Amino acid sequence: MDVMEKKLYTATVTVEGGREGKIVSSDGVLDMSLKVPKELGGPGGHGSNPEQLFAAGFAACFEGAMGVVMRKQRLKSEGIKITSHVTLGKDADDGFVLSVYMDISIKGVEMSVAKQIVEEAHNVCPYSRATRGNIEVITNVVD
Predict the structure, then answer these.
(1) Helices (H), ranges, 6-141
(2) Which one of 1, 46, 84, 113 counts the least CB within 10 Å of its CB?
(3) The pLDDT of residue 127
């Protein structure tokens, strides 16, 4: 386990009511309702859910890690786009599990180089490092 040597930033979010509740960040920027999706037997509608929030956080962090890799290699792109899919499912023992699948496009970069950037970003991204060996994470580099 990696030990944190230096704290850089702490996000603080208060959740009340779980999947049918509300989330508010300490700075007030994040302030929204949570709703259980229809696919999980809930009402759906206006509100997010933990899987959407995890998908957004992982993809944003991963794109940042790709930027770190590209700066170290002095590479530039015309833009990066990540579509992140987080799936909630069940394992063989009927326990809840997550999986992540990301479609990643790096405009203006040769496909073989893009794949190498994505591979290296897994070693930089704290979400990748935290989930490694715990959940399935698949990255698909697309044009």
Answers:
(1) 50-72, 111-124, 126-131
(2) 1
(3) 97
